[in-house]
Every structure is written in structure tokens, then in C-alpha cells.
Design goal:
By secondary structure, this protein is of the alpha/beta class. It contains eight helices and 14 strands. The strands form three sheets. A seven-stranded mixed beta sheet has the order 10-9-8-11-12-14-13, with helices on both faces. Residues 46-50 have low confidence and may be disordered.
Length: 313
């Protein structure tokens, strides 16, 4: 199959609405190339190295890119995208140069080229995430390695929300804990919990693709004797009791499951939530407290928040 890259030269203000337009047009993801990233002070406290090529970025404005299959509807899709972007002006959204360019991309090149940007990353005191194709050796004796092959469906495990959850697991998980991972995705949090000493982990996700991906990654990391992966809608009909629940999902979803989480967690147990944007922080806190949790910590990384609650003894 042939794919085309559609690139919109726009403004920072228009990034989110244009990204939404591209998603609605059938793009499974977008690439945002913002020249401010070139001068941003990145968090390298755990050894991350960021290598950005200035030639990939515009001198002003922002590039928003997406990939669409070249089929009989491609021309109509591009026209609809252009029209929707132009309509943003009616909402007083500045769209800048609004230059739309199209270039053909070979599917094989597109599917593998991103791998050169995915390198081993130390994301907490003990855990390093590395892609399966990298020959990574431990730097420290107590370093714990998670190998991931994210494919094209899931992230690399280094998104701030994932990092926040793993750092919280490292802090709050006690060896022998029984863990439930809600919205497991690639399975990375379940694997981290296994490496940190959990005795039993139940990984849940509604998406069949996520379940398949998690099963593969759990087996790859030799954690399948500890981690059970199941297709399930949040904590609905889950009767297992746990000492810790971790949920890296949207705030809007977290607030719907806090009552069930309180029921599933043993007294003294911990709920770790992330996937929360700053504007939704108080909403999640209120929901957790209303369900009976005591908020013990709130951690912020970039624009993302993790909230940790305890169930009273």
C-alpha cells in the first residue's frame, strides 16, 4: 500500500484543532515539529539524550504531519482537511501560513524509519526501557530492563504519563503486592510491576490489539508466569482483590472507575492514576476522594499529572 504524508505549516495555536481534524480524516497519529523543541530544556535527570535535527523544523510556525493511505478517496480527504482548517478562522484561531504539502511515502520505510529515534531510556532509579532491536547492557547491577517492541499501535513506554506511573510503582509497590493494571496498552506497567517484585498482576484492556500487544511484551520479558492479560472494560465485574491498582488512562475515564477501584483495593492499598492533563487534575482528585481515597501525592511532569491515593486501613 502507498501512503502519503500531509504536512500543514501552521501556528502553535492551531496545533490541537488541526491534529483533531487529521484524526477525524483517518490519521492514526500526528507528528508535531515545533522549533521551540530545539531550545527547550529537556528533563535529562535519568540519563535521556534528545537528538533533534534543526533541518526538520520550520524557521517559524509549526509543522503538523500525518499519514493517509493513497486510495480512491485520498483527494477528497485532502480537500476536506483543507476546508476544515480554513474554517478554523471563523473561531478566531490563527492558522498562520497554512501551507499544505503532500509527499508520497514508501510503506516499508515509514514503518521502520521511526526506529532510529527509539533508543534505550532510563526512566526511573532502577528501570530502563529498551527496544528489542538494541543490544543494551546493564550499566548498574541493580538496573531493571524492560524490552519493548511497540510496533505501530503503541508508544515506546517513555511518554511522561508512563514514566510517572513507573516512578510511582517504584516508590509505592512492595514486593509481594497483588497488582491490577487498568488500560495496560503495551503491558509496560505490568512488566515493571513484575520486575519490582509484585507476586501477581492482572492486566486489563478493552482493546483487542492492546491485549495481543501486552501478551507479546509480557512473554518477551519473561513475566507471563506473573502477569495475566485479559480483555475487560475497566474494572467492571472484576472480583479479584489487590494491594495496588495502576491506571494510565484519560482523566474522563479514571473518574468513572474510582468507586470500583476502591472496592477492589484492600485496606491500606494504593491507587496510582495518570494520563491526566493539568486542567483535569482537580476533577480526578475530587472523584478519588469522594470514593474514599486519601490523596498522598500529586506529581507533575511537563503538562501531565499523576495522582496517588491510599485506601484507609
Amino acid at each position: 500500500m502507498k501512503w502519503s504524508e500531509i504536512c500543514i505549516h501552521t501556528t502553535q495555536e492551531a496545533v490541537e484543532p488541526i491534529s483533531n481534524i487529521l484524526h477525524e480524516a483517518g490519521a492514526s497519529g500526528v507528528v508535531i515539529e515545533d522549533p521551540q523543541d530545539l531550545v527547550k530544556e529537556w528533563d535529562t535527570s535519568f540519563g535521556e539524550v534528545y537528538q533533534l535535527n534543526p533541518d526538520d523544523y520550520p524557521e517559524e510556525g509549526v509543522f503538523v504531519k500525518a499519514y493517509l493511505p493513497e486510495n480512491s478517496f485520498f483527494a477528497e480527504a485532502v480537500d476536506a482537511i483543507k476546508e476544515s482548517i480554513n474554517q478554523l478562522r471563523t473561531y478566531d484561531i490563527e492558522i498562520g501560513k497554512n501551507i499544505v504539502s503532500i509527499s508520497e511515502v514508501n510503506e516499508e520505510e515509514w514503518a521502520t524509519a521511526w526506529k532510529k529515534y527509539y533508543k534505550p531510556v532510563k526512566i526511573s532509579n532502577h528501570i530502563t526501557i529498551t527496544p528489542t532491536w538494541e543490544d543494551y547492557k546493564k550499566v548498574h547491577e541493580d538496573e531493571l530492563i524492560i524490552e519493548l517492541d511497540p510496533g505501530m499501535a503503541f508508544g515506546t513506554g517513555t511518554h511522561p504519563t508512563t514514566v510517572l506511573c513507573i516512578q510511582a510503582l517504584e516508590k509505592y509497590l512492595t514486593p509481594g503486592d497483588k497488582v491490577i493494571d487498568v488500560g495496560t496498552g503495551s503491558g509496560v506497567l505490568s512488566i515493571a510491576a513484575a520486575l519490582l517484585g509484585a507476586s501477581n498482576i492482572l492486566a486489563l484492556d478493552l482493546d483487542e490489539v492492546a491485549v495481543t500487544s501486552a501478551l507479546q511484551n509480557v512473554k518477551l520479558n519473561k513475566s507471563d508466569h506473573i502477569v495475566s492479560v485479559r480483555q475487560n472494560n475497566l474494572l467492571q465485574d472484576i472480583n479479584e482483590k489487590s494491594t495496588l491498582i495502576v491506571a494510565n488512562i484519560l482523566a474522563e475515564v479514571i473518574v468513572k472507575m474510582t468507586d470500583d477501584a476502591f472496592t477492589c483495593i484492600n485496606p491500606g492499598g494504593t491507587l496510582i492514576t495518570s494520563g491526566i492533563i493539568q486542567g483535569k487534575k482537580e476533577e480526578v482528585k475530587i472523584a478519588m476522594e469522594k470514593s474514599g481515597f486519601r490523596i498522598v501525592e500529586t506529581v507533575v511532569m511537563e503538562d501531565w499529572v499523576a495522582i496517588i491515593g491510599k485506601k484507609p486501613e
